[in-house]
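step: validate -> pass
step: tokenize input -> pass
step: predict -> running
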Amino acid sequence: MITEKLLSQDLVALQQEKGNTCISIIIPTHRRNPERRLDRKEIEKVITRAVEALGDREPEASRKILLESLDQLAQTIDFNHQTEGIGLYVSSHIKILIHFPFPVEEKLIIGDHFELRDLLYKVNLSKPYLVLQISEKDSHLYEGSVDELLEVRDAHFPAVYNDQYEYNPASQSSTMAGYAHVKSNEKDKSVMEEIRFKHFFHQIDKKLNEYLQGDKGIVLLGAEKELSWFENQTRHANRIFHKIAGNYNHLNHKEIADLVWPHVRKHLQEEQAQSIREFQEKVGQKHAISGIQEVWKASREGNASKLLVEKDFHKPGFVEADTEHLFLQPPRVAHQATPDAVEDIIEMVLKKKGQVLFMENDGLKDFQHIALITRY
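step: predict -> pass
step: emit ->
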């Protein structure tokens, strides 16, 4: 999907930007009025703080470039169509605006690299899925990534139902017969329509084969009757992770995305729970550890297969100069302070080709907020 590719491209560009002054601004926003009216003022306040924080730490020419880029990026914000958070990322030659369809905490960080925790979490949520909207008239297919949908328009979709049933109202055969023959024909028509609709949905189900690469799931939209007919015809029942009953033909693709996203996010959170269960199983196999100091040690040694960490878990630390052991309090030996040991762990795991999965806050409270499935 285009959205998924763009998100990955942004992430790579931001990850590679190191050594230069990087400004990361994360701000909660609101989807609806009247709260949305406050977003503009809050964003202006945070940008003002960023300007003050820059102070004289940059040469005048560099400082001017950063502030101009920040201002230009802020001007692109559409305050009439907000999500639950936005991120502004600016350096001397990068300016990227990211929308977050999940709650975020306000952050203003100026350093030699970008704060990417929320963006990495969005990448975790960007698993592609399909939305199939069915009705007796037509069917539409959408490819989804996070809270955005792109309608499929090709030789298969949209699919239009073509009713070719030939029906000639019957005349009364006699006064005694009344309308018995008329009612019989009407019943025949109803049965024939049901057969045709089921055939229509069977054809749609066959067309889905071309779009179900990998483990893509499906959200199904339609009236109760149509949902039932389709479920009786489909060979992809195991891919359908949610159904929404009702007539949504009047909605545009953005409105459908807003309708579907909460259910998709809930499904992804259930997959997060599955990752925690996987970790618990690995504990018994001696391939799982928890706690920031143990995870730090394993990550530094390259023994990190899958890191599970709460989205907003931060922890300052102190690294011993000789052994690179992590302390949570200043040791008496020579050491270097690190403002966030969790961020360092994430970077180590990604650098050594491990997987990083972000959990909801407090989702790992039984495991000291950070856990690791090891390679060996």
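step: describe -> The CA atoms of residues 29 and 41 lie 11 Å apart.
step: cleanup -> pass
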